[in-house]
User: Which sequence fits this backbone?
């Protein structure tokens, strides 16, 4: 696990611990369900939850069929895309995978995985703290 993943995992642990007091405000995340094959445009905002490294993260849900393979691609022209995937809902997630740059010529991120669960949370994040802005995210089913 990279240092970024450890920082992010620690952030989600802190968020989970904070949930023992007041519940996490679900309006802090977009929470939009991604549809396979549809490109969703969004904006990473300073109002999104802040991680312990100072970066902000938005979250989307993805319904999957266990046993099928999927890829999720995050693109942004204004920040270095950082993508994380976890099982469960945005406010109560266990991180499983992460990706920073999947191509040598871009700062876009992609995660490819075989689903074991019906619901995943996809976190849109910037690799470096302090960066926000427009992005697009797309989920695709990948032939086995």
Assistant:
């Amino acid at each position: 696990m990279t240092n970024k993943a450890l920082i992010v995992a620690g952030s989600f642990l802190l968020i989970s611990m904070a949930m023992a007091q007041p519940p996490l405000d679900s309006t802090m995340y977009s929470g939009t369900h991604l549809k396979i094959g549809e490109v969703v445009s969004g904006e990473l905002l300073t109002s999104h939850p802040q991680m312990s490294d100072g970066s902000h993260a938005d979250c989307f849900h993805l319904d999957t069929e266990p046993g099928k393979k999927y890829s999720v691609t995050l693109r942004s022209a204004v920040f270095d895309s950082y993508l994380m995937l976890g099982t469960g809902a945005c406010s109560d997630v266990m991180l499983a995978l992460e990706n920073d740059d999947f191509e040598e010529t871009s700062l876009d991120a992609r995660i490819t995985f075989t689903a074991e669960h019906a619901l995943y949370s996809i976190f849109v994040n910037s690799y470096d703290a302090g960066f926000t802005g427009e992005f697009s995210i797309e989920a695709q089913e990948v032939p086995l």
Remarks:
- The helical segments are 3-18.
- The radius of gyration is 14 Å.
